[in-house]
User: Fold this.
Amino acid sequence: MSDAPGAVSAADRPVSLRQYHEALSEPRRPWWVAVLALAVFAASVVMLSVLFSFAASEVDVLLGLTKNDDADSGAIVITPTLFLANNLLLASLIPISMLLQWAFFGVRPRWMLSITGTWRWRLLRRSALFIVPIFLLYTGGGLALAAVELVEAPPSGTTLALLIMIVLTTPLQSAGEEFGFRGFIARTVGSWSTRRGVSFALGTTASSIVFALVHLAADPWLIVYYLVFAVAMSLIVRATGGLEIAVLIHALNNVLLLVPAVVLRSLDESFDRGVGSAGPLALVPMALIAIITLIVLRWASRRGVVSTAAAAPVSESRGSAS
Assistant:
């Protein structure tokens, strides 16, 4: 297939074959390197979160979308500005993850994309042929209602702004979460072991727990859903050797659910993660993700998708000639 690794020169010949989650595993690397990398990652996210939130709040006050009293009281209203700030924050995980991988582990940014060091567009297009229709069937009812609403009543400026931001920035937000959780965190924690199964288990467990925690869900069903989603994406990344299909699934899930939520004025409800906000109904998206995951794993196996390839070339490791 076209996603196979390109030829490497004799000077760059890799020393081993690895799966995606093993990219940072080296037997002689001190354990504290991963700890420090995770700490810097967390500090970077917190710092940017404060900056983006502050900037968005100030812009909303200047535009008259919120009042100073609302901002001081901590009352949160999802305005287009705050929505954009949140998406840009999560999208920033893409460069943060790639650069920290390079800084702490000496593996250049492009190796975060896949085990081939490239973004495999052909693989993405082929998988989209069956993944997109599944999501359209799942979200069809909501999309149909949204279409009727748009025909019957012209969207307000706020609705139009949110729709534009969803289409343009939510795919980047989804990609950022995959780069941050299934990419950087999973690989970094997985670097504590050079044994393939242990490395994958450590990385998947840690990244899945953190993924569930940062969504701040109080409803037990939602917490389980986030764990199921995270583990499913980890399995897909391992089976396909890269982040491409996980990003596609994450982006479709978010975009196709947010569009009708905005049009039908239920965006605040879609972000409600309190006790009782989901309940057993969360089993439906869990089942969807489980089915898609099984299909992708089967498809990747039958199509011979490259999931194990040469480690990053020696010349791209820390301390080597570049």
